[in-house]
Amino acid sequence: DNSFEQFIINYCNEKLQQIFIELTLKEEQEEYIREGIEWTHIEYFNNAIICDLIENNQTGILAMLDEECLRPGTVTDDTFLEKLNQVCATHQHFESRMSKCSRFLNDTSLPHSCFRIQHYAGKVMYQVEGFVDKNNDLLYRDLSQAMWKANHSLIKALFPEGNPAKINLKRPPTAGSQFKASVATLMKNLQTKNPNYIRCIKPNDKKAAHIFNDALVCHQIRYLGLLENVRVRRAGYAFRQAYEPCLERYKMLCKQTWPHWRGPARAGVEVLFNELEIPEEEFSFGRSKIFIRNPRTLFKLEDLRKQRLEDLATLIEKIYRGWKCRTRFLLMKKSQIVIASWYRRYA
């Protein structure tokens, strides 16, 4: 039962997914250039075609909806759907039962009063009932002016368009237009920032512990665009780290770098990787970072480090036990000499 509200929410998700991939690729490319690493072009699904289907000023779904809301005559949700069937008939991401494209005419899973959009995360069906009414902004000018005259400062601040000094004789913008403008402002703001993404995965619908619904999690992973992000990351180098912390973490794996390396950190990492006989195609040296291509190489380093730590722990334990036993032995020897000397004195 997806309606207008879910439609504009999914539109926002499409825009966020678009900027998410763009910023991810941009960040990857900028770091490779900065570090002097050769950049490999990465193929990925660009959902700009879906965003254009929704927000295009001439042929977009929101533009068609605004046109229906503003034109004179009898306007219904069915006339809106008919216009979509005409304008978006051949679009590869738009589906309708009465579309001009015959491949959808026999789709019994799609009711006559619905249309379907193939979003980047999958197909979503929308019920057109209520689209026109919900898109019309029913907050008329006289109501805004009345609220602006209220004595309460909060209510007055909530209706700035009621200010007589800002009277606009144009018809108030539709809900879709306002949302589209808000999304554009959000995208412009995000483009100037360096955002960090936190993805929350719901393991089950019961809000219960120890239940992991594979199908639900996989659906969320696709919907959140994590597969595209993983593809972008894996197409380049999966792991990168500055030379100093890398050498500090793995220096115990090489006799030449353990326990102290006196030269530059990069030279130490080169000696370390040569000693471990890691294939040259698995890593690259940047200006300030080491780049590792495949996760299995990193897992190998971690396994070797774990084993080495266990060996070092055994060595420390052995030395401590030897020191403790020798200290006890020397104490007993010293005590025995004292006892013997006193015994011989009185004998």
Q: How would you describe the shape?
A: elongated
- Give the low-pLDDT segments: none
Give the class-level CATH name of the domain at 4-137 and 173-192: Mainly Alpha
Per CATH, the architecture of the domain at 4-137 and 173-192 is Up-down Bundle
The quaternary state of the protein chains shown equals single chain
CATH topology of the domain at 4-137 and 173-192: Methane Monooxygenase Hydroxylase, Chain G, domain 1
Tell me the structural class: mainly alpha
Organism: Todus mexicanus
Family: Belongs to the TRAFAC class myosin-kinesin ATPase superfamily. Myosin family.
Region (Actin-binding): 183-205
Domain Myosin motor: 1-306
Tell me the layout of helices and strands:
Layout: H1 4-35, H2 48-55, H3 61-70, H4 77-87, E1 94-96, E2 114-119, E3 122-127, H5 131-135, H6 141-148, H7 153-158, H8 175-191, H9 214-223, H10 226-235, E4 239-242, H11 243-250, H12 265-275, E5 283-285, E6 289-292, H13 295-346
Antiparallel strand pairs: 1-2, 2-3, 4-6, 5-6
What do these coordinates show?
This protein has about 350 residues and is mainly alpha-helical. Among the domains are: about 5-135 and about 175-190, Methane Monooxygenase Hydroxylase, Chain G, domain 1; about 145-165, no CATH class; about 240-300, Alpha-Beta Plaits (2-Layer Sandwich), CATH 3.30.70.1590. It has 13 helices and six strands. Strand 2 (about 115-120) and strand 3 (about 120-125) form a beta hairpin. The longest helix is centred in the C-terminal third of the chain and has 52 residues, at about 295-345. The protein is elongated, with a radius of gyration of 34 Å.
